[in-house]
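Private note to self, pasted from the team thread so I don't lose it. Backbone tokens:
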């Protein structure tokens, strides 16, 4: 039986972070993961992270994964792949299946970072080929370069459903609708808005009646539901699709902890069956810790911090650091984690209906029901300003933990303040130079540069653009509104790409002046003049 100071189960963001932190303190660490590649969900995540610098904000998930792997290698962490942990026992002994053989390992401390699995819902035809989970769609697209389908219906409006819907569009899929049985969109409004402005319709208080087809999906019928989630007769809607994508939540993969005898609880706010643990991840069994989604569903940014906490706690438990060093490091991590757990989407607010922002501004009800803020509603938010010349327009309308725009502006035009969940504000005393760094840095693609006085009768709008092929200067097409409706003809007057933008291209279009605060997406296709 081989022995290690610390055994980590799961090579995702929390597991790798825990292993790195412990290895830096001198522990002999091994990480077991059942997959062929380490990194967990990070390598599926091509979008930019939220938070602040310390949370790796504005960096794409797969880049964070690459960084963690390099850091783990440098720290001397041993990572064993294709290794399925079959058993965990109170004495901190594990049985691991590697290459069809069962191996026994002993850890002086154990960190379980097994993550979560996708939930499914049942409906008539749910077992047909073509009904897939959102995570499976991400794997196909972002890891294997395989298009999941041509015409897709997404069920679920949480962050996963919204993010994957956008990535399906980037992949060239036609997302025919985004559906959710809940009466309100569950994810970040900025994620919903970037989907809505491409023209994808939202159907809230709707769910799937049946998937159609004999040997694969050929269509789907949805219907409206009442307050008891019962179908309302006569509200059925049909879509021709070849793929139904399900993003209906995650459940912690906590089976090993239950097997070991850790005290568990059924906690719906944390995703289901989770271990009872302290604020730094120690379970009811001394020396067994948890980190990441296995202890409660949150974002990957939170999981990485939790992993570092567990690694520090295990290091102190085994005597590699003293309590003073542990507590000093943990206090800083507590502050970083607490920052991510503030605002409208804080764990304490789960299930609550938030009516106003922290600043006292009424939340856009249209955003919650249809995915976009109306032209009238957008004017009440502090990031939306009017002035002569080019200036930022920040359509960030919810208190979410994110502040890269504040640091990105070289002229300090944008202010958020000490709380990273505060709505961004334009400093009227500062002059925007139109560099576009704020546009490129915004993880929610919610910042635009507007010049309402570009020409006598025209305004220019610089927007984030992450689709291929890129339009070219001189291309003509249609400007789409926040709802995705065509509103006027538009001409591309500039396209900027830079390594500093990290694959977010800056597309500048010219539109009639009256559409300066309405046009938010460009759709090519008109013949060039």
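Design output:
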């Amino acid at each position: 039986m081989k022995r290690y100071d610390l055994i980590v189960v799961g090579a995702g963001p929390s597991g790798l972070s825990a292993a790195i932190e412990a290895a830096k303190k001198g522990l002999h660490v091994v990480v077991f993961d059942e997959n062929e590649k380490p990194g967990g969900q990070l390598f599926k995540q091509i979008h930019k992270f939220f938070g602040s610098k310390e949370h790796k904000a504005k960096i794409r998930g797969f880049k964070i994964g690459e960084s963690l792997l390099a850091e783990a290698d440098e720290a001397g962490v041993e990572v064993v792949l294709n290794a399925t942990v079959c058993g965990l026992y109170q004495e901190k002994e594990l049985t691991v299946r590697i290459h069809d053989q069962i191996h026994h390992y002993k850890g002086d401390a154990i960190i379980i970072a097994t993550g979560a699995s996708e939930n499914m819902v049942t409906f008539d035809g749910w077992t047909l080929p073509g009904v897939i989970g959102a995570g499976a769609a991400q794997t196909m697209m972002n890891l294997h370069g395989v298009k999941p389908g041509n015409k897709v219906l997404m069920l679920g409006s949480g962050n996963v459903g919204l993010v994957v819907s956008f990535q399906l569009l980037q992949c060239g899929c036609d997302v025919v609708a985004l559906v959710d049985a809940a009466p309100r969109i569950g994810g970040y409004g900025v994620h919903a808005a970037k989907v809505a402005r491409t023209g994808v319709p939202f159907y809230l208080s709707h769910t799937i009646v049946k998937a159609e087809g004999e040997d694969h999906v050929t269509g789907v019928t949805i219907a409206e539901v009442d307050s008891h989630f019962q179908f309302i007769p006569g509200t059925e809607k049909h879509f021709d699709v070849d793929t139904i994508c399900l993003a209906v939540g995650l459940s912690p993969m906590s089976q090993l902890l239950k097997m070991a005898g850790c005290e568990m609880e059924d906690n719906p706010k944390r995703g289901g069956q989770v271990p009872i643990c302290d604020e730094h991840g120690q379970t009811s069994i001394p020396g067994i810790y948890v980190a990441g989604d296995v202890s409660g569903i949150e974002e990957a940014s939170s999981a990485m911090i939790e992993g570092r906490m567990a690694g520090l706690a295990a290091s102190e438990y085994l005597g590699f650091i003293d309590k003073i060093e542990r507590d000093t490091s943990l206090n800083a991590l507590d502050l970083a984690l607490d920052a991510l757990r503030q605002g409208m989407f804080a764990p304490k607010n789960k299930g609550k209906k938030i009516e106003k922002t922290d600043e006292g501004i009424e939340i856009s009800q249209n955003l919650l029901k249809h995915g976009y803020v109306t032209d009238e509603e957008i004017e009440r938010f502090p990031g939306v300003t009017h002035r002569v010349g080019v200036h930022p327009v920040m359509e960030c309308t919810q208190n979410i933990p994110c502040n890269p725009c504040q640091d990105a502006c070289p002229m300090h035009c944008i202010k958020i303040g000490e709380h990273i969940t505060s709505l961004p504000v334009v400093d009227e005393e500062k002059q925007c130079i139109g560099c576009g760094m704020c546009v490129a840095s915004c993880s929610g693609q919610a910042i635009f540069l507007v010049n309402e006085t570009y020409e006598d009768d025209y305004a220019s709008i610089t927007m984030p653009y992450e689709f291929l092929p890129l339009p070219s200067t001189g291309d003509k097409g249609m400007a789409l509104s926040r709802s995705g409706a065509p509103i006027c003809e538009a001409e591309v007057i500039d396209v900027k790409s830079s390594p500093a933008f990290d694959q977010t291209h800056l597309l500048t279009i010219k539109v009639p002046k009256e559409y300066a605060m309405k046009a938010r997406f460009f759709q090519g296709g008109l013949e060039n003049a």
